[in-house]
Amino acid sequence: MLCSFFCIGVTHSLSHPFPAIFNFGDSLSDTGNLIRINASSVVGPIGRFPYGETYFKYPTGRFSDGRVIIDFVVEAFGHPFLPPYLAGPNGTDFRSGVNFAVGGATALNTTFFTNKNLSLFINNSLSDQLQWFETLKPSLCYTEQDCSEYLSKSLFVLGEIGGNDYNVPLSQGVSLEEVLQSVPKVVETVSSAAKVLIGHGAKKMVVPNLIPLGCSAIYLTLFSRPNETDFDPLNGCLKRYNDLTTYHNKLLKEAVKQLRMEHPQVKFVYADWYDSSIRLYNSPRSFGFIDTLRACCGGGGPYNFNPSILCANPGFNLCKNPSEFIDWDGIHLTEAAYHHIANGVIYGPYSMPSIFSLIGV
User: Fold this and answer.
1) Could you say which of 30, 165, 323, 332 is catalytic?
2) Residues of the signal sequence (predicted)?
3) Residue 360 and residue 215: Cα distance in Å, rounded?
4) What region does 201 belong to: left with phi over 0, alpha with psi -120 to 50, or beta?
5) Which of 71, 107, 110, 140 is spaced 20 to 30 A from 290 at the CA atom?
6) Cis ω for the linkage preceding 160 (within 30 of 0)
7) 332 part of the active site
8) Is residue 27 annotated as part of the catalytic site, yes or no?
9) In the chain, which residue ranges form alpha helices assigned H by DSSP?
């Protein structure tokens, strides 16, 4: 853990420095939207044991055994966990923030994929989540001055999103070379979303990048080849797919730099989830991890991932201690891994500038 005694003191002294926190993204930060959209067999497992077993002690719709990164972010600022947008307004206080993230969501509009005859996990994109925000906005603030005051001081977290824009075509046989051609379009979509939120009054924004795709059990299971040169000798991850991730992240970092130039009145934080993640794979035992690449919960095989027997489906097996694993279900990470990634981003050095720099500006 990178937080010093001073950081811990700062964290405990914070109490709602932002009037609200709004999050947009996919399954890495979904806190219960997808499970409310669709309770089919595809989604159903996240509503069953062992999802949620570590922290909440019951399934919440999070794709983990416990909390995810956005949970640790809001905790650091003294905020309650963000309710999923689809929890509905009845009995839910959205004034202090809401989570629009949906498991399986893409950055690009769903028509981009359907036009290529690609099947989506769920029909939800970043533009859909922005529409949700726009629908909700009139209930959050009532006058132009009220909205300006409220939204300019709120924190907007735009991502992580984009991973499914690559997962969908790659899992359906599209070549890596073709997928690489879509990266600039994906990043431009995220940048455009930031501009939409700025148009609504956002002035404090965190933009996370992608975690290393080539280290996930699903990629290692579906795309591994006998050639040893495919694997990173330091961590055993698939180099080609981590190169895809770093290409996306490079363009995203450049896009954030451009946004800063175009909108000097807005404070942007580029959150480097990738570097905060890859250190766990490079030196797992330094962070208490015993098993680096195998999923804690899965259907067997070298990486304990079987697309026919997903976590929580009949026939799955479960590790005894999820805190010793980085990978939770072959696609998503354990609470322990998310906690380390979040600490690296919240307390440094994996955010540029520090997220705490957004307080009081």
Assistant:
1) 332
2) none
3) 38
4) left
5) 71
6) yes
7) yes
8) yes
9) 5-13, 34-37, 69-76, 110-114, 126-140, 144-153, 163-171, 176-180, 183-199, 217-223, 239-262, 273-282, 335-346
